[in-house]
Amino acid sequence: EANTQLVITAQASDGSLSDTAQISVTLTDVNEALTGVTLANAITSLSENTDLSSNVKVADIVVIDDALGAYSVSLTGTEAHMFSTENNELSLIGDAILDYETLPILNVTVNVQDATLPDSTPVTVDYSLAMTDIADATREGLGLLMAGVDATADA
Predict the structure, then answer these.
(1) Using CA atoms, how far apart are residues 76 and 109, in angstroms rounded to an integer?
(2) Rounded distance between C-alpha atoms, residue 32 and residue 121, angstroms
C-alpha cells in the first residue's frame, strides 16, 4: 500500500536468443474492512451521584482502519440506552439515572461497521462502568433514627 507502482523485469531465453521486457503496474489502494476497535482513556467507575446535567465522556473510541471509506458506530446491550457516541467518544447520557442498588454495573458493546463495505464483519469492544455506592440519605437517616429507639423500653 505504500508503493503505488510495481515494476517487473521479465527475461526470456530459448538458449540462443534472449529478450528482456519491463512491465510497469500502477496500484490503486482500495478500501479494506476495519481491523479493530479499542477504548482509550476509559473511566472504569463512577459515583452514583455524578452530575448528569449533560453527557459525561467515559472513553475515546479508537477505530483501526485504513483511512479509506467511512464507518458507523452503534451501541448494543441491556444498558445501551444509557450511552451515546459522538465524535469517537463514548458518553453516559445526561438523563441517565444512576443507582448502585439497582444497577451496580453498566454494560454496553460498541459496534463499528465500515459503511462503504456493508457485507464486512463489524468490529466490537465491550465496556463496563461500575457504580460507586453513596449512602442514600433516607436509609442513613432511618438508621440513625432507629439507633436512638429502644424497642424494649416501656411507653
Answers:
(1) 5
(2) 11
